[in-house]
Amino acid sequence: MTTPRFGGPSELAAALDEVGYLPDTGLAAAAFLAQRLRRPLFLEGDPGVGKTAFARAMADVLEAELIRLQCHGGIDATQALYDWNFPRQILELRAAGESAGVTPDVTSLYTREFLVRRPILKAVETSPSVLLVDEIDRADDEFEALLLEVFENNSVSIPELGTISGATPPLVVLTSNRTREVHDALKRRCLYHWIDHPDLSREVEILRRRVEGLPDELAGQVAAAMRRLRAANLVKPPGVAEAIDLARAAVELGERSLTDTLADAALGTVAKHHDDRAEVRRLLAPAPLAASSFAADPDLPDLPDRADRADRADRADRADHDGHEAGRGRA
Fold first, then answer.
1. Which pairing describes strands 129-134 and 115-117: parallel, antiparallel, or unpaired?
2. Residue ranges of domains in the chain
3. d(CA 11, CA 9)
4. What is the pTM of this model?
5. Is the dihedral of CA 212, 218, 219, 223 positive or negative?
6. What would the mean pLDDT of 133-138 be, rounded to a whole number?
7. Could you tell me which residues are beta bridge partners of residue 3?
C-alpha cells in the first residue's frame, strides 16, 4: 500500500478535516514535517485536548494501521517490545520429551513461532503504521532510554533472533499530559508541539461536527461554559472530550439550550472530581446570549459571568431596599 503524500501542511490539514479532526495551523505543520523528516512527533497538553484523537486521525489520512502503546509506571521491554510465549514453550518441551524420550534442544523454542510481538515491534514490522506512545509521562526514566534506541535505528534487537528492522519507519506520536517532565534527550529526538484548548469558535465547530443534531445555540453555550470552567480553579478542568460528552447528553435528553435541568442531569459528564462538583454546577448556569453573540467576538469576556455579577448586584439592591422599608415600618 502506498502512503498518501501531501504537498504541504494545508493539504494535510484539509485531509484531517475530512476525517473529522480540526487541527490548528501549528499542529498541521508539525505533523507534516514529522512525516517528511521521519521524526517522532511529541505532543504535550492538558488531558482532553485531542492528542490521542490526532494519532487516530493521522492513521486514517495515511491509510495506516494505528498501533497503540499505553504507558504506565513500571512498563518495560516485555510489554513494549516483545516477549516469549512461555506457556506454549513449556507445552512444546513436554510434548517433545514424551514423544522422543529425550530433552529437546532449548534453542528451538526461541524462534518466530514462539515470539509475542508487542506494540513497538509490531509497528517496526508493519508498513504503513502509526505508533501511538500514549502518556509517556507516566512511564519511568529507563523506558525513555529504551525508546531512544528504537527510534534511532528503527529496529528491535532480540538476542535469540538478531536485529529486526523495518523497511519504512512508522509515524511515531508520543503524547504527554505533563504530569512530570520528560527528559530533554527524548524531546530533542522529536518534533515538539503543545496542543492548547481550542478557542471558542473552533470548539463550537468541533461540537457541531462531532455531535449530530446539536442546535447551534446549545453548541455556543457549551463552548462558552467550557471557557468559564477552564478559567476556574478546578482540580480536573474539562477538555474537549468533556464538552462533547455534555453536548451528546443534551441531545439525548432532548434539551436545546443549557438549562438548569441539563446542568443537574449531565453534571457527571464534566465534573470529574468530587471537590469540583459545586463549582462546576455553578458555572454551568445557562448563557444569556445566543451562540452567534459569542462567535462574533471570541475575545469578549464571558458574558454569563457579567450576568452573574449583575444578578448579585440586583439582589444586593433589593436587600438594601427591603432593609430601608423595614426601618421605615419600625419608625
1. unpaired
2. 9-80+118-194, 82-114, 200-310
3. 5
4. 0.79
5. negative
6. 96
7. none
Ranges of H-type helices in 62-140: 77-80, 86-100, 119-125
The C-alpha angle with vertex 192 and arms to 191 and 193, in degrees rounded to 5, equals 130
Intra-chain end-to-end CA distance of the chain, in Å: 92
CB atoms within 10 A of CB 262: 23
Closest CA to 291 of 188, 192, 222: 222
Binned at pLDDT 50, 70 and 90, residue 297 comes out as very low
Residue 104: pLDDT band (50, 70, 90) is low
Instruction: Indicate the angle between helix axes 9-18 and 25-37, nearest 10 degrees.
Output: 110
Q: What is the pLDDT of residue 322?
A: 53
Q: Assign 254 to helix, strand or coil.
A: coil
Q: Within 10 A of 310 (CB to CB), how many other CB atoms are there? A: 11
Q: Pick the closest to residue 147 from 133, 161, 127 (CA basis).
A: 133
CB atoms within 10 A of CB 288: 13
In this structure, are residues 214 and 247 in contact, taking their beta carbons and an 8 Å threshold?
yes
> Do 207 and 214 meet the contact criterion of CB atoms below 8 Å apart?
yes
Angle between helices 200-210 and 216-231 (to 10 degrees): 130
Cα–Cα distance, 46 to 237 (Å, whole number)? 9
The set of cell numbers assigned to 94 is: 513436554
Q: With residue 159 as reference, give the H or E element that holds it.
A: none
> From CA 140, how far away is CA 74, in angstroms rounded?
6
Helix, strand, coil share (%) of the chain residues, nearest 5: 55, 10, 35
Among candidate residues 185, 190, 187, the one with its CA nearest the CA of residue 145: 185
User: Longest C-alpha distance within the chain, in Å?
Assistant: 114
Strand partners, 65: 129
Mean pLDDT of 163-181: 92
**CATH number for the segment(s) 9-80+118-194:** 3.40.50.300
Which amino acid, one-letter code, is at 264? D
Q: How many CB atoms lie within 10 A of CB 41?
A: 24
Q: C-alpha cell of 24?
A: 490548528
